[in-house]
Amino acid sequence: MRENIGIFRGKDTIEHKWRYGNLTVHGDTAQIWEDTEQGLLNYLVDPETVGEFTGTYDKDGTGIFEGDIVRSYDPDDSPAVIKYDSGEKMFAVVMDNFFYGLGEHVYGNYLTIIGNIHDNPELIEGGSNENEHRKET
Known about the structure:
This protein folds into two domains: 41 residues, no CATH class; 72 residues, YopX-like domains (SH3 type barrels, Roll). Helices cover 0% and strands 47% of the residues. The protein contains no helices and eleven strands. The strands form two sheets. The chain has a six-stranded antiparallel beta sheet, with no helix packed on it. A hairpin with a 7-residue loop joins strand 7 and strand 8.
């Protein structure tokens, strides 16, 4: 996992709901600090579900997070996964084993979020997110 530099989401381990906010990591434990009407609350989240906000929005104005599954405006394109490319130090749209820089080669307003790798793995060809060719950190 990278440094805490933005807004994160993760699925809490009790209610299995998505939580959004600041991330803290202590060993194998991850927590999201969410600003609620009751004040700042912290939730233990499954570290495998943690994804960072890319700073980009899809064509419907929804924030794009690492781990989202997106589709482009081209109906012939396969669904793609948003990942962090540690080599390039940027978020990328991964489609058909190719990395396209988000905001550099592909813009969020050309994408629609159709799910995420944790709730909807069946949206990715083969039902898995194991199609990456670079190691992530």
